[in-house]
Design a protein that fits this description.
The chain is mostly helical and 295 residues long. The protein has ten helices and seven strands. The chain folds into three domains: 59 residues, no CATH class; 123 residues, Alpha Horseshoe (Serine Threonine Protein Phosphatase 5, Tetratricopeptide repeat); 74 residues. The protein starts with 14 loop residues before the first strand and ends in a 6-residue tail after the last helix.
Length: 295
């Protein structure tokens, strides 16, 4: 290996190194790797550039070749330009992210405003039709009264309120009313759909009522196992001891009718050990029917 005097420069990763030789008779070939050795280190100098391409001024001695473009660069100028471009790119990215955040905030504001308006409209529509529901005219409560105007707006039926505002909380309450109205006119299959929509309510009371409605529909369809499961779910949601035990009793009786004695026994005994004493007599009678020992 031949020692080659001269100035050398070490570049960062990804950049080749150029040499300026000092007229000592060394004539490297362009594109041929050269190794320069001193007393302390061994450095591989990547493909050399032709002598005529080397800057002659001392301040221009160091040149760097970009691996990607093959162009000779002045590190003090071109790398500074790269840093400037990097800063511009980062700035553009920052502006883009800021714009996206602003768009999201505006979207959330409009979404919340739309939800608020839906809730208000659903509440108003529900209050108008509730009078008809409570009067017992369930068919009109379901379908509305186009002949009756309130503030130049026809009275919407429960079905239409659910159709327009089903994702609003008051729309889910309207679905519960619709389910009850359909049960009252013996349309249990159709009622199932509306009780199911009510299960999405954030109100525990609405959810419990919807589960009871589903249980009633299943019971009227002679699906006692399905009925028992809905009653049991409703009992698990309830925090009132008397209501909880009443729903347990209904669930146990439905499991009994479905021939699932083990589940029925568990629920009857849960009532006996519960906080309420109102349904103890019915529970003991249920265990007796099942042929179980009553303590």
């Amino acid at each position: 290996m031949r020692n080659v005097p001269g100035d050398y420069a070490y570049s960062s990763t990804g950049l080749s190194i150029g040499l300026r030789f000092q007229g000592l008779g060394v004539q490297p070939l362009a594109g041929v790797p050269l190794i320069y050795c001193d007393s302390n280190k061994l450095i591989k100098l990547d493909y050399l550039i032709p002598r005529e391409n080397i800057m002659s001024k001392p301040e221009d001695m160091l040149t760097v070749k970009d691996e990607d473009s093959g162009m000779l660069l002045r590190p003090d100028i071109d790398l500074a330009n790269k840093k400037s471009n990097d800063f511009k790119n980062i700035f553009k990215i920052g502006i883009g992210v800021t714009v996206i955040i602003i768009i999201l905030v505006v979207a959330v504001v409009f979404y919340n405003k739309a939800n608020y308006e839906n809730e208000q409209n659903a509440s108003a529509a529900l209050s108008r039709i509730r009078v008809i529901f409570e009067s017992g005219d369930y068919t009109k409560a379901l379908n509305g009264d186009a002949t009756k105007l309130i503030r130049d707006t026809p009275v919407l039926g429960l079905k239409e309120i659910v159709n327009q505002y089903g994702n609003a909380e008051n729309g889910r309450v309207a679905a519960l009313y619709a389910g009850n109205a359909l049960v009252s006119i013996k349309k249990h299959s159709e009622a199932l759909e509306y009780f199911d929509k009510s299960l999405n309510s954030s109100s525990k009371e609405v959810v419990i009522s919807a589960l009871i409605g589903l249980a009633v529909c299943k019971e009227n369809q002679n699906d006692y196992k399905g009925s028992a499961e809905y009653y049991e779910r409703a009992s698990q949601q309830s925090t009132q001891p008397t209501t909880k035990d009443k729903l347990r009793l209904y669930a146990a009786m439905s499991f009994e009718k479905a021939g699932i004695k083990e589940k029925a026994e568990v629920l009857f005994r849960d009532i006996l050990s519960g906080e309420s004493s109102e349904f103890i007599s019915e529970s003991k009678s249920g265990l007796t029917r099942l042929g179980m020992i009553v303590e």
